[in-house]
Design brief:
This protein is mainly α. The chain has helices at about 5-20, 30-55, 65-85, 100-130, 130-160, 165-185, 190-220, 225-245; strands spanning about 60, 65. Helix content is about 80%, strand content about 0%. It has a two-stranded antiparallel ribbon. Strand 1 (about 60) and strand 2 form a beta hairpin. The radius of gyration is 17 Å and the shape is globular. The protein starts with a helix and ends with a helix.
Length: about 250
């Protein structure tokens, strides 16, 4: 079996573990979220952006096409979350509404998260098409991100009153989406320019997730120095990984 698909299955297990832990305890998860944000930012800064800017020199409207793709990726995920319902911090005091509208928002929110998880899987497969070094770096960042995804999916469903047997299936879909995405990213042939554009879009996704979603969650109830330190550790760890693999 292709290595990207195997690693995608590992991240699916991390998603399930995050969901299970959300049902038990959230006391120290702000540190995991802080670390996750640092890993994502480190991946974008030290590996993805240098890779895509080297891979494509095309110009659109007087600026680098890659730069446009990064902004489009950021705004696309932002608009999707706004349309389907924002992802409230996992540890916030978001209201315990049980209205029909809240149930719909919770389900749509979980499905939207499943959509971006699928794109994570595609990026993992695409990264291994570029190089094993980039693939391993993406995997390490996604592993922690997968854990927080499982945590956030379950928390979102519980807070909106949508936790039931159907929600359990939604968590399963969320966990398996990376495997489907990795299969697509591995076996579909992309030109070098297409690979660069997709990875630039994915960089925009990660910047949005780290700065607008994961970090606010990490500091929502625990704005501690330890959380900030965890973020710095995540950045430093990805720096070490990229420099070692390079």
């Amino acid at each position: 079996m292709n290595i990207a698909i195997v690693l995608a299955a590992v991240t699916a297990l991390a998603t399930t573990a995050g969901g299970a832990l959300a049902l038990r305890s959230r006391d120290r998860l702000h540190l995991v979220l802080g670390l996750s944000a640092g890993l994502l930012l480190g991946l974008v800064s030290f590996d993805l952006l240098p890779e895509v800017f080297d891979a494509s020199q095309s110009i659109t409207g007087g600026v680098r096409t890659i730069s446009i793709a990064i902004i489009v990726g950021f705004l696309f995920l932002h608009f999707v979350e706004q349309f389907f319902g924002s992802h409230e911090p996992a540890e916030s005091d978001y209201g315990h509404e049980h209205s029909h509208a809240a149930h719909i928002a919770g389900t749509l929110g979980a499905l939207a998260m499943g959509g971006h998880v699928f794109l994570d899987g595609v990026a993992l497969g695409v990264a291994f098409q570029v190089s094993n070094k980039l693939g391993v770096a993406v995997f390490i960042a996604l592993l922690t991100h997968a854990f927080s995804d499982g945590l956030n999916t379950v928390s979102l469903l519980i807070k909106t009153g949508s936790w039931n047997k159907r929600a359990t299936w939604l968590l399963g879909v969320d966990a398996l989406a990376r495997i489907g995405g990795a299969s697509l990213g591995t076996y579909v042939a992309f030109s070098d320019s297409s690979l660069a554009i997709y990875l630039a879009l994915f960089s925009g996704f990660l910047i949005y997730l780290a700065t607008s979603h994961i970090l606010p969650e990490a500091h929502s109830r625990h704005p501690s120095r330890l959380t900030m330190a965890a973020t710095v550790v995540g950045v430093a760890a990805m720096w070490l990984v990229v420099s070692t693999l390079g």
